[in-house]
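Quick review question:
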């Protein structure tokens, strides 16, 4: 692969960021003379040497471009997030469920011992070790005094159902903005 060189900075190596926590991913991107393309429909950003094809997120072909300005470049997950992801997958495979708060963006898993796990899995007809999850509307992170909302909706491959109960969550991780 040929990397178009930046006129004054050459290959311009940049340490990439973890897309999950925003920390250093331990990978290096050779930016060179790349441009930053932003989809005019959904705002997704792509770093490329030529105009990208259809946006992977929304399929639009309308891109706005500018010279790369040091905006963080996201690579793979950092070692810490990879380990946490593997831990979460093991909890879910043993009967737990993923959760996401649509109010504050916190994500994690609910341990299999929590009653809500059986309710979610039964509502979706998904048995362990298959993964499944739910979206909550307020949680212990954004509403600490109330312990989160009792309004929860099950998010999965099939429909939705309401449930309530102690979330028994672990490994809260916020998504970078």
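Suggested answer, residue by residue:
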């Amino acid at each position: 692969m040929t990397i178009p060189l930046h006129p004054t900075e050459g290959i311009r190596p940049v340490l990439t960021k973890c897309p999950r926590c925003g920390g250093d991913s331990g990978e290096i991107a050779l930016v060179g003379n790349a441009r930053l393309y932003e989809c005019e429909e959904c705002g997704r950003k792509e770093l490329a040497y030529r105009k990208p094809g259809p946006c992977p997120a929304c399929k639009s072909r309308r891109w706005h471009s500018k010279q790369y300005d040091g905006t963080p470049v996201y690579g793979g997950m950092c070692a810490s997030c990879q380990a946490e992801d593997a831990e979460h997958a093991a909890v879910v495979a043993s009967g737990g469920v993923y959760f996401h708060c649509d109010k504050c963006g916190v994500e994690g898993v609910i341990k299999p011992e929590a009653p809500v796990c059986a309710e979610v899995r039964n509502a979706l007809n998904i048995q362990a070790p298959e993964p499944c999850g739910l979206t909550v509307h307020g949680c212990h992170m954004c509403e600490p005094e109330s312990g989160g909302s009792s309004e929860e909706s099950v998010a999965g491959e099939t429909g939705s159902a309401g449930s309530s109960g102690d979330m028994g969550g672990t490994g809260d991780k916020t998504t970078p903005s």
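Why it works: Confidence is low (pLDDT under 50) at residues 149-177. The first strand starts at residue 13 and ends at 17.
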